[in-house]
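TICKET: design request
STATUS: open
ATTACHED STRUCTURE:
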């Protein structure tokens, strides 16, 4: 009999004892395992759960883990993966008229908080200034900024709560049709007050049709 201490829930620990394994597993038959679990409670009430060979990752034996596809390991992306994924967005540390013209919107934002929402990160931001509008109208004040989880994991864009940024991005549908979207192709740079004057000049040039020539 082997005792395995496993973590099935972020906030609670279960004690799991693998009581029996059907020997038919060796010839490919579906085995059944009876797990006697008790909560970490002063007076636990054990109960029995019957599992098939399709066990959750958290209660699989080490030998079984080796047979899982790589996608099931839930590991974060490697630096090599991120370098390849973010390659097109590296080196964007300067703002110029050409970059301004290529993007649909340009705003100064203050990151207030961040929440995980499925495959996305949902940032509550304060739009301080709007320098360029896309088809999706952006107003000053609190808004939602959506960024895919993989982009955040690979730090493209690199963004932190309570910081101010210049954000240049393209119009894209958000998960709930509300707010703005940034991705690995967006230009996100920590804000500098000296940029305000330059961005106002870009605004004026755009109104004169300069972006069509950029």
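STATUS: resolved
RESOLUTION: sequence designed for all positions
ATTACHED SEQUENCE:
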């Amino acid at each position: 009999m082997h005792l395995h201490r496993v973590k099935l829930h972020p906030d609670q620990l279960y004690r799991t004892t693998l009581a029996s394994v059907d020997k038919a597993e060796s010839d490919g038959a579906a085995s059944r395992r009876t797990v006697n679990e008790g909560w970490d409670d002063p007076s636990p009430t054990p109960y029995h759960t019957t599992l098939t060979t399709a066990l959750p990752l958290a209660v699989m034996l080490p030998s079984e883990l080796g047979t899982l596809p790589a996608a099931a390991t839930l590991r974060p992306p490697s630096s090599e993966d991120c370098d390849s994924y973010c390659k097109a967005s590296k080196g964007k540390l300067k703002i110029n008229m050409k970059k301004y013209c290529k993007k649909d919107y340009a705003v100064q934002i203050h990151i207030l908080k961040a929440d995980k929402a499925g495959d996305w990160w949902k940032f509550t931001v304060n739009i301080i200034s709007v320098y360029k509008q896309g088809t999706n109208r952006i107003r000053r004040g609190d808004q939602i900024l959506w960024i895919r989880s993989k982009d955040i994991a690979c730090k493209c864009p690199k963004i932190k709560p309570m910081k101010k940024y210049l954000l240049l991005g393209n119009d894209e549908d958000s998960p709930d049709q509300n707010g703005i979207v940034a991705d690995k192709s967006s230009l996100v740079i920590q804000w500098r007050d000296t940029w305000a004057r330059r961005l106002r000049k870009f605004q004026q040039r755009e109104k004169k049709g300069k972006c069509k020539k950029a």
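CLOSING REMARK: The first strand starts at residue 2 and ends at 9. The helical segments are 62-65, 79-85, 97-102, 149-153, 195-207.
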